[in-house]
Amino acid sequence: MWWIVIGSAVIYGFYLVLVSIFYKGWRQIAVFVPKGDEVIRIKISVIVACRNEKNHIRQLISCLAQQSFQEFELIIINDHSVDATRNYIKSAQETYPKIQLVDAAGFGKKNALIEGINISTGDLIITTDADCLPSYHWLESIACFYEKNPCDLIICPVKFSGKDDLFSNLQALEFTSLIASGAGAAGAGMPVLCNGANLAFAKKSWKDSRSCLHEEEMSGDDMFLLESIKKRKGVIRFLKSESAFVTTQPSGTLIEFIKQRRRWASKSSAYTDWQIIFTAGIVFLVNLEMVTLLMLSFVYPACFFVFVALFLAKSLLDTFFLNSVKTFFQLNNVWIYSFLLSVIYPFYIVFIAISTLLVKPDKWK
Description:
Layout: H1 2-28, E1 44-50, H2 57-65, E2 72-78, H3 85-95, E3 99-103, H4 109-119, E4 124-129, E5 132-134, H5 138-148, E6 153-155, E7 158-160, H6 166-187, E8 198-202, H7 203-208, H8 221-231, E9 236-238, E10 246-248, H9 254-266, H10 274-296, H11 302-329, H12 334-358
Parallel strand pairs: 1-2, 1-4, 2-3, 6-9, 7-10
Antiparallel strand pairs: 4-8, 5-10, 6-8
């Protein structure tokens, strides 16, 4: 019994250190507010890969057409859509001729992005997804930040918007925990997470990383780029600005949600950065420990008390961290949803990890 207690304490201890690093890193990042009168000299290319996005692409193009900063190149790569996506883009070109429509030669989102970046002329590349909606000052904020803080990679904020129901709110909180953890890690000087839905990087840095993007993997263009830049001692920053947000919709069904998370998890076996591996490993182990303790409780009742202690300690720690970022990410009822998420999360993490190992995920969303 004692070895169970000691093992649980050691794993939780590592998790405590990890979350503490994220919290400290988040607090160290200064809020960036563009003044609005800065001179932006850098040439920007916005790259969007899309497939079967007829329900979203019009809204994205509309947001881009209304950006406060309009000196940018826009390349939209159509990855073999079988719906009306391409027609919508073509019709939008009539009123917004800035759009460059490219029909992808290869298949898959990663190949589409590579094709778009290869033909781009900008020095700063900014990527987003077809189902995202950027804020009015999105490009202006990123450009101003890059001018004042030259770097290889800028991790930009993403949040969910949509229905105010239990499933959507739990997704929003879980997603925020990932984005905020990645931000805190970057602030602490150990970047371990980014999201291609809102990412900016120097084209030269991308070219230098071209051979490290693991084209054999179905996804991970964002994470493999981060890993490569980090390996070369490049500068990676998080843009802590409310005007730099893009919003996206949560998954509509549980099956869609699970498919998405399995795609994200599928690329983890190709990571080589020890900090990324360590972070993923500790998060998985602390959740696996909770599931294991609960199962052992049916055979060894004393394990239930260890489970309760670990559950409460982890739940309070997670809630404390989420509460520290709730204002920036505009979260509501953090304590309630954090507790509910704490109940579900260990089973969800273990299931995603094991199912991803057993069955390969789909290639596109």
